[in-house]
């Protein structure tokens, strides 16, 4: 496989990581049954109004959230396709062992040694010891609360699920698509995230897996039909707007909403991939130092960036008070501080761990 092809996926991953970081830098409130933060309620109690700046940032993030995790999962599926073609995993136990150390080990280690301590300092958890233990076990490890690391066990199960299904039903693409769509729909009836998440994202994992087999033809097509980008961008804006307006009051409206949401996700993923492909083929973006820093530390950025937001918000509130959240300039500065610091610190942590040869947690 030539270098340019690998760089297409690398740059897509760079953009996906940037979108994840941005998506985690606007929330003021995280409400769950197992801990959380709520600066919006503090603002309301102190008669501090939310800002237009923050509301606009929230709209931007809602758009990002419509496709950024499916993009991550699809990219993982595409890379898995390359691994399978190279016969990297000839037996299931080899796959399970490799992905266990790559995904499950960092999930438990980072949750225990990093996420829980930072959230505790940020007053995310209940002060009562029994409730604290409950919130940590159920909320963080069982994913019943809020954890940015939910992606790791979900992806681990996606690898195993697709490996088994591909071996058993090789070539039966229609059957697999119907199966994965069914899993997607069923996932919304399951309230246990550690089960529902893999069922929800296996469809996007499979789409990425299949995309790799048509990628070369796809690249030729979009290179010859550049107008497709403009059309896709317009459709993305349209489906994003329509999808939020449709109320799922009956089966027809619900079906329309699901189709709009799927279209938004697919279009969003395509736009990011297209931009990546365009930049790879027309610029030297992969020679830039910043691009390579993000690429080389993308996994570490994902693992360590989000939790820092709780600490940053906690410090800003305790140092400057809730009033700064109600200032247009303050809201913008808070966002930029979160964006810059979470990125820089997570990269620093990733680099430090790599120097210590702790490769499974960075």
UniProtKB/TrEMBL annotation:
User: Secreted among the record's keywords?
Assistant: no
One GO term under biological process is: enterobacterial common antigen biosynthetic process
Q: Where is the signal peptide?
A: none
One GO CC annotation = plasma membrane
* Residue span(s) of domain Acyltransferase: 8-350
Pfam families in UniProt? Acyl_transf_3
Coarse class of the primary localization is membrane
Keywords tagged on the record: Acyltransferase, Cell membrane, Membrane, Transferase, Transmembrane, Transmembrane helix
What is the membrane topology noted in the UniProt record heading this document? Multi-pass membrane protein
Q: Name the source's superkingdom.
A: Bacteria
Annotated TM spans = 12-30, 63-82, 103-121, 141-165, 177-195, 227-247, 259-280, 301-323, 329-349
Q: Please give one Gene Ontology molecular function term for this protein.
A: O-acetyltransferase activity
Subcellular localization, as worded in the UniProt entry = Cell membrane
Q: Which family does it belong to?
A: Belongs to the acyltransferase 3 family.
Q: What is this protein called?
A: Acyltransferase family protein
